[in-house]
Amino acid sequence: MQEETKAKAPRREKLIRPRGKRGGVKHRPKGSVKQAHTVAIAKYHALEKQIAQTTDIAERSALEKQQRKLGGLAKYQDQSTTGSATDRGGESGKWCAKTLKNIIAPDTKISLLDVGAIAGTAYTKYTSWITTTSIDLNPRSENVHQSDFFDWPAPSAEARYNVVALSLVINFVGDLHKRGELLLHAHQYLRPDGYLYIVLPLACVKNSRYMTHAHFTALVNSAGYSVVCNEDSAKLTRWLLQTKAPKSLTKSQRKLSSKEKLMAQYWDGIVYKKHELLPGDAHNNFAILLPKSYCPYCKRSKDVISKLNVDQSKVGVLELDQTNDGSDIQNYLKEKTDKSTVPSIFISGDFIGGCDDLLKIQSDGELDKLVANI
């Protein structure tokens, strides 16, 4: 009997899936996830900045509609933590706790206000010595209070915090003046020897046309802080600042609003406008402005001058924070008067000085004489 032969089935080749076809994060091309959430964050930030700058109601409504299409604040929070959850919360909290441990006395217990906390988990590992109060515009946990930092009640002097943490908060604010105001606002919550902890994307100080490490150091110094420690990681720049002793308020300054009192106590009068430090369109536009228009000394000086028996049409007021060449004018005034603070007051071309000088010649009866012939 002839033996029956069977044909062998062809051997199946190993199935190789093209990378990324499964749809999981680990199978996607390297960098694709990062690129997607980075683009989403950039779009949201750009809209936030435009909303802060516009005064047109219809335009504001259209911009807010675009933000809602992106998913709103909740989606922004999701995107800001995608691929960098440890950078957003735990790692930043870890760095702050470690740095504080190195500079405070052993067994010291501290209170901390965590602004922009989202889930409020940044300091959960340190509850034995850090008591945390967490706030956020859109909290993701019942342990986080819903509040804007500017609306959070300022505590009594005895209940103030040892630390205020602004982790990825300043860069979220679209209004450049509000960013500077945040620095001054934090003083209301800090004890006299308290610390302000700031975290920013590294690109804010390393790839901005208007900000560098040195410029940021000078700016926070003008806002009433000294730099205790600064450290950069691959993505973030972290700063621990300590508040300086406030200046004593004069009798007239005690009548100022709370915002103006902060300016009088902590701001040294140096104005920070947009000044190009790193030219080139390839750089980002991150900037922080310390507003001159809110200066209590300027306001007081303008109040005094407005009440003089003089034709007010002959009085000129130049707001440097609202002038394109404000930085150049300030530099010129420094060369001319040897002063970099504001206001700079001139009468008939002669430099009188600042607010205190104006008030002195007013009390001496000299001011009316100086303006009599104007």
From TrEMBL:
User: Where is it mainly found?
Assistant: nucleus
- In this chain, composition skew of type Basic residues spans 17-31
Query: Might you give the EC number(s) for this enzyme?
Result: 2.1.1.-
Q: Which UniProt keywords apply?
A: Methyltransferase, Nucleus, S-adenosyl-L-methionine, Transferase
Q: Name one GO molecular function term.
A: oxidoreductase activity
Q: Which SUPFAM superfamilies match?
A: S-adenosyl-L-methionine-dependent methyltransferases, Thioredoxin-like
Q: Where is the composition biased (Basic and acidic residues)?
A: 1-16
Q: From which domain of life does this come? A: Eukaryota
- The segment(s) forming the Glutaredoxin domain are 292-352
The answer to keyword Nucleus applying to this record is: yes
Detail which positions bind S-adenosyl-L-methionine: G116, D136
Annotated PROSITE patterns: GLUTAREDOXIN_2
Q: Where in the cell is it found?
A: Nucleus, Nucleolus
Q: Which Gene Ontology cellular component terms are annotated?
A: nucleolus
- Broad class of enzyme this protein falls into: transferase
Region of interest (Disordered), ranges: 1-35, 73-92
Known role: S-adenosyl-L-methionine-dependent methyltransferase that specifically methylates the N(1) position of an adenine present in helix 65 in 25S rRNA.
- Annotated NCBIfam families: GRX_euk
PANTHER family (UniProt xref): 25S RRNA (ADENINE(2142)-N(1))-METHYLTRANSFERASE, S-ADENOSYLMETHIONINE SENSOR UPSTREAM OF MTORC1-RELATED
UniProt similarity note:
Belongs to the BMT2 family.
**What's the protein here called?**
25S rRNA adenine-N(1) methyltransferase
Protein species of origin: Malassezia vespertilionis
Upper taxonomic classification of the species? Eukaryota, Fungi, Dikarya, Basidiomycota, Ustilaginomycotina
